[in-house]
């Protein structure tokens, strides 16, 4: 049997992604994982299996492996602010140390009886984990309207796609696909020539904006969020797409990020943020976004291989994705050179002067 040769991925070493914060589940998903409301819950981030739980009122993330016989702690139970492994009952505190071994409580606890705890915080009602905090030079991504008075934020249940997180990011910011993947849903198919915006790098974000033709709203469903699109995308996977709706000038933000489960799977998070109005139920907006996702998912999961590659043919109209890939590559190379180079690659600003305002 011959094996089909695969195009080379854009970068082989994904270790630089360990320096970023990634969401692994919604607060609601953690609280629903077990009747206690405190987990434990299994998640995977960058190929690493983790257990998430609420101990001492705080959410913790640890490697999902009991030091004894390597059973999954996520199959255990939260007992007295510890996670109890449900194979032989070892108990782990919030720092990952074993604090109780029922089989021989009179013996000292072995020094190696521990699992690794990782940095973990709750923000935007999502549980965020950073696997490598040694450089401590990344922040939780930007969200324009989480705390803005008068805005209503709806955290949609997360969903998994069989593709790399990079491809999901590129799909969400792809300005050429609307006419073909979302005709009549998000876009008028007559507008199949995409704009080429200025794409800047500012403070760890890619920023760009477009203004689709206002007249197309007559051809779209009432709930299609159509207006000026302003993107602020915190590297590597988050997107804050803020719209000013053409129909009533109100604010509407789609905030999304993709958690890299591994090279070929991502868990995606979506928060819909909109101006609070009477008679504007959440489910209408969630249902509309689901329709859009169902249009995207099959085509994105068909991209093969799932990892992005420099061998793909790019056009000037792919500028957003071209710039994104360029920066990702720079970050991966810089990370291999160390903290200073990585921090510089992340924070250096680049102003795109090629497009006149
Ligand atoms: S495998 Fe966890 S207590 Fe034995
Ligand atoms: Fe799409």
Short synopsis of the structure:
Helix content is about 20%, strand content about 30%. With about 350 residues, it is an alpha+beta fold.
Q: Could you explain how this protein is built, in words?
A:
It is a single chain. This protein is of the alpha+beta class and 357 residues long. It folds into 2 domains: 16-130, Rieske Iron-sulfur Protein (3-layer Sandwich), CATH 2.102.10; 151-347, Naphthalene 1,2-dioxygenase Alpha Subunit, Chain A, domain 1. Helices cover 19% and strands 30% of the residues. It is built from 6 helices and 17 strands. It has helices at residues 27-32, 165-172, 178-181, 282-302, 319-337, 339-347, and strands at residues 21-26, 41-45, 48-55, 58-63, 77-79, 82-84, 91-92, 98-100, 117-123, 126-130, 151-161, 200-202, 205-210, 227-234, 239-245, 251-262, 265-275. The chain has a 7-stranded antiparallel sheet. Strands 1-10-9-4-3-2 form a 6-stranded antiparallel sheet. The chain has a 4-stranded antiparallel sheet with strand order 5-6-7-8, with no helix packed on it. It is globular, with a radius of gyration of 22 Å. FE2/S2 (inorganic) cluster is lined by residues 66, 68-69, 71, 85, 87-90.
């Amino acid at each position: 049997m011959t094996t089909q040769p695969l195009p080379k991925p854009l970068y082989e070493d994904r270790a630089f992604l360990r320096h970023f914060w990634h969401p692994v589940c919604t607060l609601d998903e953690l609280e629903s994982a077990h009747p206690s409301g405190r987990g434990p819950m299994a998640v995977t981030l960058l190929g690493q299996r983790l257990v998430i739980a609420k101990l001492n009122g705080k959410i913790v993330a640890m490697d999902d492996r009991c030091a004894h016989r390597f059973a999954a702690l996520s199959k255990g139970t939260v007992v007295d602010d510890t996670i109890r492994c449900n194979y032989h009952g070892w108990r782990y505190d919030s720092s990952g140390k074993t604090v109780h071994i029922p089989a021989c409580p009179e013996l000292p606890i072995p020094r190696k009886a521990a699992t690794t705890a990782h940095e973990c915080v709750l923000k935007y009602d999502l549980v965020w984990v950073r696997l490598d905090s040694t450089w401590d030079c990344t922040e939780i991504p930007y969200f324009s309207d989480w705390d803005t008075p008068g805005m209503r934020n709806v955290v949609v249940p997360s969903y998994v796609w069989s593709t790399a997180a990079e491809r999901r990011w590129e799909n969400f910011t792809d300005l050429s696909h609307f006419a073909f993947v979302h005709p009549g849903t998000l876009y008028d198919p007559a507008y199949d020539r995409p704009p080429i915006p200025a794409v800047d790098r500012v403070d760890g974000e890619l920023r760009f904006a477009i203004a689709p033709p206002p007249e197309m709203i007559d051809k779209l469903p009432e709930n299609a969020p159509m207006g000026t699109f302003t993107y602020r995308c915190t590297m590597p996977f988050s997107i804050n797409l803020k719209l000013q709706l053409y129909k009533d000038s109100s604010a509407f933000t789609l905030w999304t990020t993709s958690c890299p489960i591994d090279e070929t799977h991502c868990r995606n998070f979506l928060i819909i943020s909109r101006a609070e109005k009477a008679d504007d139920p959440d489910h209408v907006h969630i249902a509309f976004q689901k329709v859009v996702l169902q249009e995207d998912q099959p085509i994105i999961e068909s991209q093969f291989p799932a990892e992005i590659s420099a061998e793909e043919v790019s056009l000037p109209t792919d500028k957003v994705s071209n710039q994104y890939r360029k920066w990702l590559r720079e970050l991966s190379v810089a990370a291999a050179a160390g903290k200073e180079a990585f921090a510089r690659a992340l924070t250096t600003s680049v102003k795109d002067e090629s497009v006149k305002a």
